[in-house]
Amino acid sequence: MNSFEALRKEIDDLNAQLLCILDRRAELVELLLVEKQRIGLEVYDAKREKDQLDKIKKSSSGKYTDQALEKIFTAIFDVSKEMQYLKGLDS
HEC profile for the chain? Predict the structure, then answer.
């Protein structure tokens, strides 16, 4: 396997790992929804989301710009909120 193919394979492997992490995150989001409903919290918590984005940007190695990190994680947060809203309607 040449270095190009090896790099592509490593990226493929990382994509598979990311998917596993996102699946686990989705499981936790579903559990969190149950707790939010139990204690009467809204799905969206603007302060928590901002705090999380700030924390992520501060702990970054710098390979991604703050703007890129915000795009990536805002997309993840948005999908998570959507999942919670949809699941909440099912309850």
Answer: CCHHHHHHHHHHHHHHHHHHHHHHHHHHHHHHHHHHHHHCCCCCCHHHHHHHHHHHHHHCCCCCCHHHHHHHHHHHHHHHHHHHHHHHHHC
Radius of gyration of the chain (CA): 17
CATH architecture group of domain 3-90: Up-down Bundle (1.20)
Q: Model pTM?
A: 0.90
Sequential pLDDT tens for the chain (91 residues): 899 999 999 999 999 999 999 999 999 999 999 999 999 999 999 999 999 999 999 999 999 999 999 999 999 999 999 999 998 866 5
Greatest Cα-to-Cα distance within the chain, rounded to the nearest angstrom = 56
Structure tokens at 22: 């996102």
